[in-house]
Description:
By secondary structure, the chain is mostly beta strands. It has four helices and 25 strands. It comes from Paralabilibaculum antarcticum.
Amino acid sequence: xxxxxxxxxxxxxxxxxxxxxxxxxxxxxxxxxxxxxxxxxxxxxxxxxxxxxxxxxxxxxxxxxxxxxxxxxxxxxxxxxxxxxxxxxxxxxxxxxxxxxxxxxxxxxxxxxxxxxxxxxxxxxxxxxxxxxxxxxxxxxxxxxxxxxxxxxxxxxxxxxxxxxxxxxxxxxxxxxxxxxxxxxxxxxxxxxxxxxxxxxxxxxxxxxxxxxxxxxxxxxxxxxxxxxxxxxxxxxxxxxxxxxxxxxxxxxxxxxxxxxxxxxxxxxxxxxxxxxxxxxxxxxxxxxxxxxxxxxxxxxxxxxxxxxxxxxxxxxxxxxxxxxxxxxxxxxxxxxxxxxxxxxxxxxxxxxxxxxxxxxxxxxxxxxxxxxxxxxxxxxxxxxxxxxxxxxxxxxxxxxxxxxxx
Length: 407
């Protein structure tokens, strides 16, 4: 419960990744000499289209690296495939504050790795870099071209260039693809995938779709009972009293955690929210000549619902085990909680309503089979009387929590 503990926890969070398993999966790449090399590729589950990748020729071999200058094509079996292409791409911003008044796409020639979404008589590709997202297509009669969609400004109003609909109607000619299919089509992956799949089905094209292995359930709900090792002290800066140093105390806590898995980077990141009931009751006496009777008692009765909101990062050890680290900001909502100061004869000297500040929490834990978990979490100092000018009431805790995922 000191600075050394905080430092150790932060150090472990920052360095624990080095102990986790690096996932290399069956794949291949084709180099500039048109050699196809079977290998194991590090599956980063790229959110942005990569320009390089790491691979091994065997599980116990050294890690090597290739890049867009040396590789024409690479893929992870059944999960993803990337082609190196020279294409014209419009990088006009789609952010409202950066829109330009030009309706037409502003192209530049670039060499990119495009990710394959559908590959057949009509193929669909995607390029992502931060907020930039562009779709490309190829047919038997055309090279790879960008599907054009652009937002632009006309007299401070947003207008849309949806030329991609005309491109699709002109290039995906079949009896089943009609103007009704593209009239309200949005520039989104789901709708475009559906259209290209429908076209390839109609023309009896042998085609393939890469489907990344995503966790089917991107939402977890867990019950999380545990204990909290609490430390508390309070001080009045306007008095000559010494600090009230309360004894360390262990209390029960109970929470329900909701976790939203982010669908990229192999589901390693998540957003967590955990309403937790906690209580702390304690009493301390202080010998002082400041009050009649020579003794001042401090009674704290503190009950609240803590709501930590934060991010979690998972590191896989093997198929069934993973460790995680998280950081959260805690909002605290207490109910009728007070610190009461009383004299030796039982009369009230002062009554202070608890109105706590927020604080930060750092946690580390272990999860087994996505079902059972164990976590140690350090809660930094929370001032329970932060609305009082002369009072400081520092509450901090180390919690040990056991979790069981309902779904």
